Structure formats: C-alpha cells, structure tokens
C-alpha cells in the first residue's frame, strides 16, 4: 500500500507527482526537470485536491518515495511531521498573518527529511495583499522548500503567482470510482455507496457524509422535494426559509460537536475544572476561541447554502435532460416521477433560465448578499417558470 492508493480517478496527476518525487529520490544532488519548488493543484470541489497534495508531500518526505507505512508517511497523514507545514482555513479568508508565519517557516532547513513541504489548502481564499506576501517567497525560494497550493482553478490566484507555479489539473472522478472508494473505505453496501456518490455528484467528501450520515441524506432529500413542489410565490418564499433552516441545521451538525470538544480541551489545558468559572486573566483566550468558532460557523453556513444550490442545480439539470429526451444518467433518479412532471410543466428555455438563476444566487451569496433574499429571488424565479407554463 502506498500514499497514492486512496486517490480516485486522478491517474494522470498521480503520474506527474510520482515522477517528480522519484526523480528527486534517485539523485538528491541533481535537479530533474520533473521537480520544481512550487506547485498548484486545481480541480473542482471534492476532486481530492488536498488529498493529492498531502500524498505528494508524503512522497517527498518519505525515504522510500511514499510507501504509506513508515513513520514519515504516518506523520504526514496525521499532519505532525516536523518538515510539513499546512494551512487549512476554516474561515472565509486566509489572513495575512497566517501566510507571513508560513513564509517565515519556509526559510528553515528540513529537520529530518530531504525537503520542507508547505501545503496551503483553499489558496483561492487569499486576498491580493496576502497573495503578494506569498509571492515574495515563491520568487526567491530556499533550495529545499516545496510549496503546494490548492485551489479550484488557476484563475482564482493572481497572475504573478500563477506564473511561478507548476499547475496540475484534476478531473471530476466518475460515480463508479467514488462509489467503489466509499464502499471499501467506509464499509457501506454497494447500493448506498452508489446513491451517495451520485447524489454528491462525485464529490468525495460529500459522498462520504451522505453514505454515513442518515440525517445529512434526509436533509438533501427534503431540499429536492421542496424544489420540485414550488408552484407559487408564497410556496417559494416558504421553501426559501426552510432551505435556510436546513443549511443552518447542517452547519450546526458539523460545528457544534467540534466546538464543544475544542472548548473542553482549552479548559483542560488551562487547568479549569468542569463547571468552574474562567478566571479573568484567561477569558481572552476563551473569547478568542469563540470568535474563531463564529467565523468557522459563518463559512460552514455558506458552504451549506452552496451545497443546497448545487443540489438544486442537479434537479434542474435532470429536468432539462428529460426535456431534451436524454433519460440516462439522472442524478436524482429516485424522484423520476416528480422530475418528469416538472419537465412537462415548463419549456426547456425556462429550465435553463432557472439554472442561470441558481448560478446568480451562488454569486450573490458569495458577495455577501443576505442568503434569504438570494434564495427567495431564485425560488420565485423557479415558481414563475412553472406558473407561466
């Protein structure tokens, strides 16, 4: 078993990274053209960007090129390797101070391995000013430091950074590949794994959640039913409010348990017994944790709303396929009767207009428009389409 074994449907990208790590492993003194000091892994959400980045990091830090079993590979998997630094933001943006700290650590020589590897997940969440701080490190990199950035696309980074990295693009894995991974890794039956992979549209993380969390699967099913049952403006407004509630509940389910564990860990580290009041001189640390958790909750809610919009897009994509006479490969095949009724109730032009409205709603929410207003505008547009038909 190697560090590459759990990566699904990305053989071309794996070959690029494996060639780079093996070329460097073969000769620690020569600089093969396959290896460079800065990389950019791009691909749609759920394609495995960060997993591939850490697999590459393990192959560079492992003495055997990523065996998957040694202490180096185990430490990379646990994110505890002394020569690995990672930045995983749980907020809306990556702060400039976080990047400055990484740039400073990049100047140190490796402690035990051939390289010091720095991974930045969600590099697209850097503002331009923050990106310029990173740019200076990429322009004059230390000899044994490797940067690995992850982003949805090259266009999400400023041009000067794009010109200084080697880009590796990932593709969307097939439903079959994702289902096979979920079935083998999570121990679910093949039918559940296939349904989760299909509903997640090959998003590996979301497929895992839908296959192992019945509440998450139930929330998605309710979202689809709400979209298919919207017929009037009043129903659209009520459905928008309910979808906001669903996204909020989903975000709470993800963050609440973790928040409680973090607070308990902080209290223990400060020597505060359960039920005791926090001393005045330590309240700033608790307050700092609470502020960090609030920022994470904001991002979780946005992510939840975006997942709902992606699910809505899958519904109208199925409706459009039926209208065009393409009846295979429906994402929401469990709702085929309702989908056919929706397809018969509107022309395909209205379906396309609704899909464009979904894309506009995603842009509006990303631009800090109130989610309730964006969702209401979207669903009212969908209801008008059905009424006009």
Please outline what is shown here:
The chain has 389 residues and is α/β, with parallel strands linked by helices.
Mean pLDDT comes to 87
Q: Helix segment count?
A: 15
Major sheet details: 5 strands, parallel
Rg (CA only): 23 Å
CATH superfamily assignment of the largest domain? P-loop containing nucleotide triphosphate hydrolases
| Content of β-strand | 5-15%
Q: What is the CATH architecture term of the largest domain?
A: 3-Layer(aba) Sandwich
What CATH first level of the largest domain would be assigned?
Alpha Beta
Q: Give the overall form.
A: globular
Distance from N terminus to C terminus (CA atoms, Å) equals 57 Å
Q: Can you count the beta strands?
A: 5
Q: Order of strands across the biggest sheet? A: 2-3-4-1-5
User: What count of structural domains?
Assistant: 3
Low-confidence stretches: 385-389
Q: Which topology of the largest domain does CATH recognise?
A: Rossmann fold
List the helices and strands in order. Answer: HEHHEHEHEHEHHHHHHHHH
Assembly state = single chain
Structural class given helices, strands, pairing?
Answer: alpha/beta
What fraction, in percent, of the residue positions are helical? Answer: 55-70%
């Amino acid at each position: 078993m190697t560090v590459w074994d759990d990566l699904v449907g990305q053989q071309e990208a794996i070959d690029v990274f494996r060639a780079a790590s093996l070329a460097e492993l073969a000769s620690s003194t020569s600089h093969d053209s396959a290896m460079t000091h800065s990389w950019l892994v791009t691909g749609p959400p759920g394609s495995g960007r960060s997993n591939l980045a850490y697999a590459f990091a393990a192959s560079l830090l492992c003495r055997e090129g990523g065996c998957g079993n040694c202490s180096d590979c185990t430490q990379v998997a646990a994110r505890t390797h002394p020569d690995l630094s990672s930045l995983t933001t749980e907020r809306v943006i990556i702060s400039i101070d976080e990047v400055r700290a990484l740039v400073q650590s990049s100047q140190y020589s490796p402690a035990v391995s051939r390289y010091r590897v720095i991974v930045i997940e969600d590099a697209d969440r850097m503002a331009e000013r923050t990106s310029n701080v990173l740019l200076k490190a990429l322009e004059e990199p230390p000899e044994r430091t490797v940067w690995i950035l992850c982003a949805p696309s090259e266009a999400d980074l400023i041009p000067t950074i794009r010109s200084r990295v080697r880009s590796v693009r990932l593709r969307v894995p097939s439903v079959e590949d994702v289902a096979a991974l979920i079935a083998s890794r999570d121990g679910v039956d093949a039918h559940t794994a296939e349904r989760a992979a299909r509903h997640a549209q090959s998003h590996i993380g979301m497929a895992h959640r839908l296959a192992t969390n019945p509440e998450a699967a139930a929330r998605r099913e309710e979202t689809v039913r709400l979209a298919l049952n919207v017929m009037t403006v009043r129903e659209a407004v009520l459905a928008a409010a309910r979808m906001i509630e669903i996204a909020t509940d989903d975000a709470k389910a993800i963050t609440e348990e973790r928040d409680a564990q973090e607070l308990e860990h902080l209290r223990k580290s400060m020597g505060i017994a359960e039920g005791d009041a926090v001393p005045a001189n330590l309240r700033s640390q608790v307050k700092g944790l609470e502020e960090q958790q609030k920022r994470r909750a904001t991002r979780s809610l946005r992510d939840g709303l975006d997942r709902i919009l992606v699910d809505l897009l899958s519904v109208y994509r199925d409706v459009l396929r039926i209208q065009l006479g393409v009846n295979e490969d429906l994402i929401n095949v469990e709702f085929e009767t309702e989908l056919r009724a929706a397809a018969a109730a509107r022309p395909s032009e209205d379906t396309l207009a609704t899909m464009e409205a979904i894309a506009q709603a995603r842009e509006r929410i990303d631009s800090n428009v109130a989610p309730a207003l964006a969702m209401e505008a979207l669903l009212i547009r969908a209801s008008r389409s059905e009424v006009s038909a």
